[in-house]
């Protein structure tokens, strides 16, 4: 297995039950298909992996109040089992998860782990929500971002493709590629 660049970090975004459970209103139907590609990336990145979790928090300021009015099923305590990592994700965790109440996971907490201007490889869910929000914010902050398209799943296949197309417009700050291309 090839190794990732020594200055790179793999960020696995929100591999949680709420996005993997077919009964969930937020299920990313392609989730089962990304576990193998994320495993391949994780093998190449060793301990330079950061796993994130979306959690609702206890306060819902501004537009988050409307959001939770629309999606009341997700307004649960942060430690609810629905927000737990899927079993496969446990092997990717080498440090505490980065938990955030926002779609985008880029910010001070992530920068304190990966550095101010890192090379990030993003995988996870949902391509058309938390992945794109993280990619755009990280690129705006000066990170170099690669999105492993075959290690991401969207709310559906067309939304996944649309999000990948939008992110690819940000080249050279964001590059959408396959796991094979990233590891070559």
Supply the CATH class.
Alpha Beta
**What is the fold-level CATH name, i.e. the topology?**
Rossmann fold
Number of strands: 6
Overall tally of domains: 1
- Describe the global form: globular
Give the terminus-to-terminus CA distance: 10 Å
What is the CATH-assigned architecture? Answer: 3-Layer(aba) Sandwich
Whole-number average pLDDT?
A: 96
Question: Can you give me a brief rundown of this structure?
Answer:
The chain has 184 residues and is of the alpha/beta class. The protein has helices at 17-20, 31-45, 63-70, 108-114, 127-140, 157-168, 179-183; strands spanning 8-13, 49-54, 98-100, 119-125, 144-153, 174-177. Helix 5 packs parallel to helix 6 (157-168).
What layout of secondary structure does this protein have?
Layout: E1 8-13, H1 17-20, H2 31-45, E2 49-54, H3 63-70, E3 98-100, H4 108-114, E4 119-125, H5 127-140, E5 144-153, H6 157-168, E6 174-177, H7 179-183
Parallel strand pairs: 1-2, 1-4, 2-3, 4-5, 5-6
Helix pairs in contact: 5-6
Pfam families: Isochorismatase
GO molecular function: hydrolase activity
Organism: Acidipropionibacterium acidipropionici (strain ATCC 4875 / DSM 20272 / JCM 6432 / NBRC 12425 / NCIMB 8070 / 4) (Propionibacterium acidipropionici)
């Amino acid at each position: 297995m090839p190794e990732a660049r020594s200055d790179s970090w793999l960020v696995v975004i929100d591999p949680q039950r709420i996005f993997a459970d077919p009964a969930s209103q937020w299920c990313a139907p392609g989730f089962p298909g990304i576990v193998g590609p994320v495993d391949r990336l994780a093998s190449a990145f060793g301990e330079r992996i950061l796993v994130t979790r979306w959690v609702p928090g206890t306060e819902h300021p501004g537009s988050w109040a409307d959001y939770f009015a629309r999606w009341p099923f997700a307004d649960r305590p942060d430690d609810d089992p629905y927000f737990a990592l899927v079993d496969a994700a446990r092997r990717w965790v080498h440090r505490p998860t980065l938990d955030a109440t926002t779609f985008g996971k880029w910010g001070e907490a992530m920068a304190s782990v990966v550095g101010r201007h890192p090379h990030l490889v993003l995988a996870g869910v949902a391509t058309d929500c938390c992945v794109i929000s993280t990619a755009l914010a990280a690129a705006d902050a000066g990170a170099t971002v690669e999105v492993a398209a075959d290690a991401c799943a969207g709310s559906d296949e067309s939304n996944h493709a649309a999000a990948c197309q939008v992110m690819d417009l940000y080249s050279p700050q964001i590059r959408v590629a396959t796991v094979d291309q990233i590891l070559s």
